[in-house]
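Morning, I've got a small favour to ask if you have a moment. It would help a lot if you went through both lines with me. Thanks so much in advance, here it is.

***
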Amino acid sequence: MSDTIENEKFVQLNYKVVDNKTGDTLVTVEYPIGYVHGVNDVMSEDVTKALYGKKVGDVIEVPIDTKLLYGERDESLVFTDLIENVPEEFREVGLTITMENEKGEPRNFIVTRLDDKTLTIDGNNPLCGREVTFVLEVLSIRDATDEEVDLGGAVGADPDLNEIMERAQ
């Protein structure tokens, strides 16, 4: 069994997203993500290429273009309202509020600002418009089972990086 990442190897990673300008950690995954290398496109091609040939314990840093992941920042998705118009249960910075548009499509908004008079929510992904680097640590590597190869990841899991990132915010 090879101890390096190559196609059809089951790999577990931890990762964090770091803001290039401030050095602040914006997102940290609290549990490892597992995927089958070369089978599941859970990560960008740049990340997959950078991981190929790495070993357990290796840490890689990959700059990510958030415009490709989330598009351009859209200021029309930022709303400020008088605090008196907002129910008390929504008056918490960092709270995610799901709303639907006129077509019934859901969108998450995050409370980004709160003062004595107003509350601001933002429908842009929090990473949108930032220059970031994914820092990934290889936790384990093993041969994937046939079922894992078919699924692209762990049996009973759905390794979707965007979904994980949304939950981590």
Observations:
- The first helix runs from residue 45 to 51.
